[in-house]
Fold these 2 entries.
Entry 1:
Amino acid sequence: MPNRRMVKKENPHKINEEIRAQVIRLVGENVEPGIFQIKDALVLADEIGLDLVEIAAEANPPVCKIIDYKKFLYELKKKQKEIKANATKVVVKEIRLGPNTDDHDFNFKLKHAIKFLQEGSKLKVYVFFKGRSILYKSQGEVILLRFAQEIEEIGKIDQLPKLEGKRMIMLVSPKKTK
């Protein structure tokens, strides 16, 4: 088995003795804000029983805060997780039609499209042309425009029918409900 090196995970912030500046600006809840020598700030942090953490290294002098570093990292991760959870995930559903789709099939796919839009998904409706059926481009466009007309109350057309290779594609997104 090859010899694996243990890689030390580096902290995103400098803490306590890792801070190289001689003079720092100190902020925090338990301390009087001001400019301190690094050794005085370390003694102050040690007396309180917390860590001295460099928050803004680019500032002149660097800004440091006396806090519980583990708790600080935990709250940072918690905030990032919350932001990620609140981010909207866009789902795109596809509906495939043919250039000669019958009324029954059209209505069946229309019901599915309405359900998808009500769930908040985007739609990619396309007519697929097989072989020589590409000759019926106008029929495909008519079917897509009819589809758009049927769902105009709950969906808005993002992209009108457009031919891309053997597919004529139309994009639909749900209308915002008030």
Entry 2:
Amino acid sequence: MRILVVDDERQITRVLRTSLQSSGYEVTVANNGLEAFELFRTTQPDLIITDLAMPEMGGIELTRAIRRIAETPIIVLSVREQETMKVAALDEGADDYVTKPFSMPELLARVRANLRKIAREEPLPAEVTVGDLYIDTASRIVRVRGADIHLTPKEFDLLLIFANNPNRVLTHKFLLRQIWGPAGEDQPEYLRVLIGQLRKKLDSASSSRYIESEPWVGYRLRSELTTS
């Protein structure tokens, strides 16, 4: 697997290159988004790890440019003070984020998880299983541990979006746009209510917590479930 690392701090790129190569990945390094975009087109990496604040072209602009032509997984690196930039990158199509300072085991785990999702470009199958959650997409049947769960149409649509993106952070803006269209983007209370309803129905049938909140960012559906 080929990984493109993008950061203007050479110490970080050296550490990332060494650690990723030690884990068996082929690594290409760029020091800004403009250079990274050119390398992306020539090397066609399987995954991108990019900083947000960089000269020439930042991580948000790089994500936007790549999303115009490809669905390659993108992990952004951010510091806590870049909360707004991190959310903007996710809204532009980034798949995940890691906050600096981070541990290499955490980053490597995120890399492995996102590489497993490369096949998500394929059409959603007729049946989807995430942990002990089963979804029949054609008949709109949902079961948790074998028990049927009745969902409203919007609850089902929301769950299907999550099931098609397991472990991926989906921002509030993205979910609002997917469920209610552009007019719903400024109505976050709609999403809070819908998430609450869906959680209640899923969690009541299991001791597991399915939908995990990412404060100020969005939500994710976990494939490795935790106890409520």
